[in-house]
Inverse folding.
């Protein structure tokens, strides 16, 4: 059994979609390699950070990724295996990359209650909610707003000044 710990700088980005692991990002790997009858059992933990966009409001986000992995690298033989020991070495890249990419959020959000974008203006609803709530008027009823207001009141709903 051998325990290993090392950092790897990625030569290319991992993942597609709204979030991915950026090129030149560092992946920290803490692992254990154990000799078993069938081959080498590789297990451990990989840590890195993802970057991307919120799926609702399109702001930039980033976050940590930590995954555990375990796989048997079989000795070459009669049977076809996904992972094999080659020249007394194991290649962890495919194993770690698959584990990390599969753990990335499918619909990432900047915060759990992110309201997204306003469908008419395209502004972030968080910013417009902080500026003040605006009541959306259905365009089919917009003409009635002039009729509904009392002529004795001002246009802003306040009492007329004399």
């Amino acid at each position: 059994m051998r325990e290993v710990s090392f950092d790897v700088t990625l030569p290319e980005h991992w993942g597609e979609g709204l979030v991915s692991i950026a090129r030149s990002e560092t992946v920290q790997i803490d692992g254990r390699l154990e000799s078993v009858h069938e081959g080498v059992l590789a297990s451990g933990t990989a840590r890195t950070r993802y970057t991307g966009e919120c799926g609702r409001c399109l702001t930039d986000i980033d976050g940590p990724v930590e995954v555990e992995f375990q796989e048997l690298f079989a000795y070459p033989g009669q049977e076809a295996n996904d992972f094999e020991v080659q020249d007394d070495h194991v290649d962890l890249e495919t194993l770690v990359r698959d584990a990390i990419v599969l753990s990335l959020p499918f619909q990432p959000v900047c915060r759990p209650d992110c309201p997204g974008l306003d469908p008419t203006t395209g502004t972030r609803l968080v910013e417009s909610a902080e500026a003040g709530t605006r009541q959306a008027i259905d365009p089919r009823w917009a003409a009635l707003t002039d009729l509904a207001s009392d002529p004795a009141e001002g246009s802003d709903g306040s009492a007329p000044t004399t």
